[in-house]
Amino acid sequence: MKTLALLIALAFLAPAFSAYKCYFCSGHGQVKCSSCIKGCSMKCYTCKGLGVVRERCMVCSGRGQSHYSGMCLTCNGEGSTIRDCHACNGTGCGSECYVCNGTGRVECRYCDGTGVAK
Fold first, then answer.
1. pTM of this prediction?
2. What's the CA gap between 8 and 10, in Å, rounded?
3. pLDDT tens, 9-56?
4. Domain containing 39: what range?
5. pLDDT tens-place string over residues 85-101
6. What distances in angstroms separate CA 90 from CA 18, 33, 38, 50, one per listed residue?
7. Domain contains 62
8. Do 116 and 22 contact (CB within 8 A), yes or no?
9. Is 1 contained in some domain?
10. Do 118 and 104 have their domain in common?
């Protein structure tokens, strides 16, 4: 009977002796890179980091008006359309971050990437 009570007590105490998840990385071993933006060391110069650019409508030549129907249906009368940036392929990145190699994550310095608190 005492053996059973001891085993039950040990089962409840076992978590107290096991390793705890690292508080800073939530046990993942990696944290967000603070040296970059979305894995980039700098924003794309062409789209300012948005990944899209606004360009003059080719159908109405930026006037927003069509010769036939009044409002241009391609740009909805705005005179411009939005497309993915060709300079960064829609990523918004100007160049890859040298700290995280473009992954956007770095090893947690508090647990040395193990995910377990020291």
1. 0.46
2. 5
3. 545 554 554 567 787 788 888 888 877 777 777 888 888 888 899 899
4. 20-48+94-118
5. 988 888 888 887 878 88
6. 45, 21, 12, 8
7. yes
8. yes
9. no
10. yes
